[in-house]
Design goal:
Blueprint: H1 6-12, H2 16-35, H3 45-70, E1 96-97, H4 111-133, E2 143-144, H5 155-176, E3 184-185, E4 188-189, H6 190-214, H7 250-257
Parallel strand pairs: 1-2
Antiparallel strand pairs: 3-4
Length: about 280
């Protein structure tokens, strides 16, 4: 078998770690383009609105995990953040404050390795959605990763915030799924790719919840439908009595993202609001 030249190319790079990360981003972006021959032209206005709402959340998650694992923004790894913007969010892409690299002190449950994988997945989701939306993609809004006052000070803080983001992400995709069409997207459909992202987020949160239980990390409920893991809760999975995941509407998701505030258009993790059609929070789920 012929020897692969890829390891030699990587070893020859002046900054091996940076090269590998950027190679991964380039591959994700290329994959997004290959999947999205029709781009936004073949999507309904509702599809575009829902995918852009999801893109706001993916920007937030990608920034969180990338800062936690590298101390850097997704922009430093080559991801685009420009696009359509609302209000005081710039079309060139917003700022991010409140993030820093986390010291992962416990290797018992592979927290750092898992965090690195999730970070790569979330960056790939950003690239995929931006590729699917094309010129209709929203820019990254201004983000405050320190909105809850924790997330980066320790491994336990990281896990508490990761659990929040991932459980919200699963419920957001589940709540938005009925709004999406089966319009073609590359070799699949818009709804099909959204379902695949939901499955990825579900894998993420299942692992994070098990780590929280194993490491005895105290957590708290965000709203009446939030199902928290042990030791603070009793269920390892965030599923109801029918074995189904929690669903939240875009307004209910923004209630959480805006710092538990109803009927507002900014706050919390998005100090100047999100970009796109869904911008107003509702009451809690």
């Amino acid at each position: 078998m012929a020897k692969s030249i890829i390891p030699d190319v990587i070893d020859a790079a002046s900054n091996r770690r940076s090269f590998v990360r950027k190679l991964g981003i380039a591959a994700a972006a290329a994959g997004a383009v290959s999947l999205t021959g029709q781009k936004a032209e073949a999507q309904t206005s509702t599809d575009i609105s829902v995918l852009n709402f999801a893109l706001n959340l993916e920007y937030l998650e990608a920034e969180f995990y990338t800062y936690a694992t590298t101390g850097e923004s997704i922009t430093s790894l080559g991801l685009g953040i420009n696009g359509v913007a609302n209000g005081s969010n710039p079309t060139s892409g917003g700022y991010t404050i409140g993030g820093s690299q986390v010291t992962f002190a416990n290797s018992l449950v592979y927290t750092q390795q898992v965090a690195n994988e999730i970070a790569a997945d979330e960056r790939a989701h950003v690239a995929l959605l931006r590729g699917a939306l094309g010129s209709a993609a929203v820019a990254k809004p201004n983000i405050n990763l320190g909105a809850l006052g924790f997330g980066f000070g320790s491994q336990n803080d990281f896990l508490k915030l990761a659990r929040i983001f991932e459980d919200i992400g699963v419920s957001a995709y589940a709540g938005a799924a009925p709004l999406l069409s089966t319009a073609p997207l590359g070799t699949g459909t818009i709804l099909g790719y959204a379902a695949q992202i939901l499955a990825a987020e579900a894998e993420h949160v299942a692992n994070i919840r098990l780590q929280i239980a194993r490491l005895n990390v105290a957590t708290f409920a965000l709203d009446p439908v939030d199902i928290i893991p042990p030791p603070s809760g009793s269920k390892y999975f965030s599923l109801d009595n029918n074995g189904l995941c929690v669903t939240r509407t875009p307004g209910q998701v923004l209630y959480l993202a805006y710092g538990l505030q109803a009927n507002v258009s900014s706050g919390g993790f998005f100090p100047t609001g999100v970009n796109g059609a869904f911008t107003m929070s509702s009451t809690a789920a």
